[in-house]
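Re: weekly structure request thread

Next one in the queue (252 aa):
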Amino acid sequence: MTRARSWVLPLAGSVVAIGLWWAATAVFGIRTFFLPAPPDIVAAFRRQPGYLLREAGATLTATVTGFGIAVVTGLLLAVLLTAWRALERATLPVLVALNSVPKVAVAPLLVVWLGFGARPKIVLVVLICFFPVVVATMAGLSSTPAELGELSRSLSASVVQSYVKIRLPWALPQVFVGLKVAISLAVIGAVVAEINNPTSGLGAVIVLSGMSFDTPLAFAAIALLALLSTALFYLVVTLERLLVPWARAISG
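Done, posted below.
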């Protein structure tokens, strides 16, 4: 019953939301140009399914690549900063300052520096995902109970053994908090880059369809982005349940 409820309730909520949207467009007579009804969006997708799926693949590739790079580099940097406190004090203010720069302002500059293509998108995804991964991992690594640290020292464990056997497993629930935040931001970063560099991807579809006043096609691209973001988020959630089953048992 619990598993069925976890699927049925979100599905029911989505159906109700779509029904209210459809009813609003019919009752208030909203023109398709301003707000297309769900059937208009489905019709727009059926007109050009290959085009939309191809551009969705371009967005997915940039998102996953940038997210993977941000996860690897973020985890390594977090381990380094927690192991070397002097480096943390010197580096963390710089990271905070860099993260405070609006990524929308950086996107046009990435096109100038890196040219057109996938590289600006990947770099922007890395920039937008990197900080949540670093902060969450540092928080998890710094929250190891003192008694576990004393246990590792009493067993003469090396620094590497202490991290691998104790600190990293303890930090995994917090790490996945950062990963879930980062994967949601990753799709946003890819779309922002595509809007500034509309050569490929669903962000480019939105820009080009807006220029041609094809609102249903733009909403079809937005719907695909929502599905893509949701699928990636729940993929991370599934990975968390497989790797950190004890955290769910404790929280439950």
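The CA atoms of residues 22 and 97 lie 44 Å apart. The chain has a mean pLDDT of 85.
Next request, please.
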